[in-house]
Every structure is written in structure tokens, then in C-alpha cells.
Amino acid sequence: MAFEGLADRLQNTLQKIRGKGKVTETDVKEMMREVRLALLEADVNFRVVKDFIKRVTERAVGQEVLKSLTPGQQVVKVVHEELTSLLGGEQSKIAVNNRPPTVIMMVGLQGAGKTTTTGKLANHLRKKHNRKPLLVAADIYRPAAIQQIETLGKQLSLPVFSMGDKVSPVEITKQALAKAKEEHHDYVLIDTAGRLHIDEELMDELQKVKELADPNEIFLVVDAMTGQDAVNVAESFNEQLGLTGVVLTKLDGDTRGGAALSIKAVTDLPIKFVGMGEKMDALEPFHPDRMSSRILGMGDVLTLIEKAQTTVDEEKAKELQKKMRDMSFTFDDFLEQMGQVRNLGPLDELLSMMPGANKMKGLKNVSIDEKQIGHVEAIIKSMTKLEREQPEIINASRRKRIAKGSGRTVQEVNRLIKQFDDMKKMMKQMSGMMKGKKKGGMKFPFM
Questions:
Q1: Is 108 flagged in the annotation as binding?
Q2: Helix, coil or strand: residue 203
Q3: Is 154 annotated in some ligand binding site?
Q4: Residue 191 among known ligand-binding residues
Q5: I need a surface site. Which of 105, 237, 241, 315 has the fewest CB within 10 A?
Q6: 240 and 382 together in one domain
Q7: Is 139 annotated for ligand binding?
Q8: How many distinct structural domains can be found in the chain?
Q9: Is 208 labelled as part of a ligand binding site?
Q10: Known binder of ligand: residue 332?
């Protein structure tokens, strides 16, 4: 997860003060010293840290906190609110043109993931908002850039407008806009040339594309792994082009995350989207309050619910609830359920969205091995249909055959069958507990 080191430091610091019935000014100062160090270590801009500490301290030693019934909780609330404010306050949505198409210019340095992000954004607009985007190949300088966006277009079944690398980006943009109007596209996403550094000649060309396209949004794509450099790049591009927002990529990597905490404060540009992985659907709208909650260990249930709503088949979920209640849950159901959970995204990322998951015994440093899940799938797929429906018939010779067929050991097969049996017993207990408590039973897929 992004901000891992920062999250651990801040959560440990806040934990010390959270339960206190009485909080003194000294307590607050000690806590803020820890918070300051944690932020600086996460590569947050020095000026940003100074202002943040000042604002939190002023509020935390004020009447609203020290005189409250739960001062420790109030301090945590203040830190959460100020962190949310630092990240931009409210979610910043895409500005939409009154008369389609809405034009979005994608800019950035080479290697930040601009072309891939352009594809991801188009995919997001189509899947989540049912829009009809057109991708424009206007990067004529980088070898294979046009080929890359055309490949993405094919992969996502999205149209790409391309005129090769011998036509100027301005002319490509002009003709792409005419085509978009003619074919009634809702969005036009212009993939411009990446820069190795801020180059005056190329910037001049971007200015010309901007003048012609009159974009509703100019998004700078920056790599969160570059830390403070990302902020400097954002400042330079903003001065030259007048950006409207930032898309942070690689926020799922082993990053200190300081860029995300500094960009809004230094440039006043909202973070519009964040890239959370390599898959083409791994782009999320940026919600400052949710990210703040995740950093402080409060979870991000809303994003988890949104992911589930788009991934989980509701009819199948209802059918599964019924099976869990009447104990007719089989290995086939288990296999299908695993598939639905995997579609939600990397499992360790899902865990980070659960409130307090990092404090749960045994989950603190849990490392979920996706390969292990593949092994479980292989074992189940090596069973016959009857064995999946009636695991109790799986005797010693059947277990040997399943182990051989799946390339796993007999011990692993035994373990899985025992776990499945234990899980069914637990389901029986849970469905008994929930009867009468809540009509309709469990409302989320079993994981």
C-alpha cells in the first residue's frame, strides 16, 4: 500500500493519545514532534509540514479539544480533518463541456506512465460513466508511442485516432476533434509527447495544441515514486501550461507518498485520479477524505463497497447467501467466490481498506501470496464434479489423484478439505446467529 511507512508511524503516534481521558499541551507537542518526523521521512515538502503542524497544534490545544469529553479522540479527529484538507478537501471531478466532446490533454515527463494512464482513463469513462471516448495519438517523437496507444485501443476495444509520426501534433489534434464531433464522441483524450525534462521547444508545441483544442482539462501525469521531484515537475508544467489537475501513478508501489501530500499544497492543483496498479482498471478517482482515513488506519469502506458493487454479481450473491444458510455450499461455489474476490483487486490492498485491519491480531504484517490462491484453484479444479459437490466422498486414493492432477502435495489437499469443512461449520454458526437479527442474512460475499 502507498504511504505504508508514514501510515504506521502516524497510527502508532495517534494510538498513544487516542484513549487519553485528559490531554495536556505537552502531550500534543510530543505527538506533533513525532508527526513532523513521520511526514518529513515520507518526503513531504518542508514548508507543507511546517504549516500542517502549526494548524493541527493550534486546533489541538484549543478549547474544542482540551475541554471535550474525549480529548484523545478529538485530537485524532483534528489530524484527520487537516490531513484531508492537505490532500485537497473534496473530490475534484472532471470538468465537462456543455457541448460534447469534453477535451482532456494528457501531459507529463517520459516514464511517468502517461500513455497507459490515458488508456486507463478512457476505460474508466466508458466502464463507470458509460461514455464514448476517442484516444488521440499525438506523441510523434517517442519511438513506438503511437503503436503503444493503438495496442491499448485494441486491448480495450476503444477507438484511436492516429495519423502516424510525420504529421504535426497540432494537425493531428485538429483532425481528431473534427472526427470526434462527426462521430459523436463524448470525450477526446489527447496523448501528447512526454518530455525527458522541461524542454522549451516541446512546451511551445504543447501551447499550440492547447490553443487549438481549448481543453476542458489538462492533466499532468506524475510518478508518485519520484517523491519531491514530482512536485517540482508539477510546478514547472503548471507555470507553462496552466494545468487543471494531476494524476498520480504508481501509488501502489513501495513509495513514501510525500508527493501526494505536497502537490495540492504547493501547486494548488487537485489530484484527480490515482493509479493503483498495472491492470487497465487500476485507476481510481481521488477522494482526499478516504485517502486520509486509509493513512490513519480508519479504512476506506466506501471504495471497498464501490469495488464490490461493480464486480459482484448480485443475483449470484443472493443465491450464495441461501446456500450458506442451508449448508449446501460446495467447492464449485467456493471457486466462484474466490474469482469474484480476486476481481476486486490485490487482496492486501483490500485488507488496507478495512477499518482497523492493521491492528487485528495476525493481520498486521500479513502477506497475501496470490500464488497460494492459484494452488487452491488448481486443487479444486482437479476434483471431479461429484467430489466438488460432496467433499465427504474424497477418500485417501481420491486425495492422491487430486494431488497428482494439481501438482500439489497430499498434505495441501488434506489441509484445503479440512479448511473447507471448518468454514462450513463456521457458516452454520453464523447463519444461526444472524437468523432473526437481519432478514436476508449476510449482505457481502464470503471471502
A1: yes
A2: helix
A3: no
A4: yes
A5: 315
A6: no
A7: no
A8: 3
A9: no
A10: no
Q: If residue 136 lies in a helix (H) or strand (E), which one and from where to where?
A: strand 133-138
C-alpha cell at 330: 460446495
Amino acid letter for position 253? G
Using CA atoms, how far apart are residues 293 and 225, in angstroms rounded to an integer? 21
d(CA 382, CA 359): 37
**Residue 147 known to bind ligand:** no
Is 109 annotated for ligand binding? yes
251 is in an annotated binding site: yes
- Annotation-wise, does 289 bind a ligand? no
Q: Does the annotation list 113 as a binding residue?
A: yes
From 44, 62, 86, give the residue that closes a domain: 86
97 falls within a domain: no
The boundaries of the domain holding residue 24 are 4-86
CATH of the domain at 424: 1.10.260.30
Give me 345's grid cell. 483487486
The DSSP secondary-structure symbol of 225 reads G
Same domain for 140 and 71, yes or no, is no
437 is in an annotated binding site: no
Per-residue tens of pLDDT for the chain, all 447 residues = 456 677 777 888 887 877 677 778 888 888 888 888 888 888 888 889 999 999 999 888 876 666 666 777 778 888 888 989 988 888 888 889 888 899 999 999 888 889 999 999 999 999 888 899 999 999 988 878 899 999 999 999 999 999 988 899 999 999 999 999 999 999 999 999 887 777 788 888 899 999 999 999 999 998 887 777 888 888 889 998 999 999 988 876 555 667 777 888 888 899 999 887 778 888 889 988 888 887 877 654 555 555 555 555 666 666 666 666 666 778 887 777 777 666 666 555 655 555 554 544 444 444 455 677 788 889 999 999 999 888 889 999 999 999 999 999 999 999 888 888 877 777 666 655 545 444 444 333 333
**Distance between CA atoms of residues 222 and 230, nearest Å:** 6
Tell whether residue 95 is among the known ligand binding residues: no
